[in-house]
Write a structure and sequence with these properties.
Elements (H helix, E strand, L loop, with lengths): L2 H14 L7 H22 L2 H17 L3
Length: about 70
């Protein structure tokens, strides 16, 4: 069998076989990490980190009754 024929058989089996989604989990995980990193960069770039931490601190103080 030629190299092309062997390659064609492997590609066809991966497109139709039970392992056709192999590696999709890694791609989805990497995409999720990129989105989360983008959110953190956006929060830092807009200077919202101080506002968010202040809001969390105020909410915790309201719950525990600290003043």
């Amino acid at each position: 069998m030629s190299r092309f024929g062997s390659w064609k058989r492997v590609v066809a089996s991966r497109m139709r076989g039970e392992k056709r989604d192999a590696g999709a989990g890694f791609v989805e995980y990497a995409g999720l990490l990129i989105i989360i990193a983008g959110i953190f960069v956006l929060i830092d770039g807009l200077g919202l980190d101080g506002m968010i931490s202040g809001a969390i601190r105020d909410a915790v103080q309201d719950v525990i009754g600290g003043g």
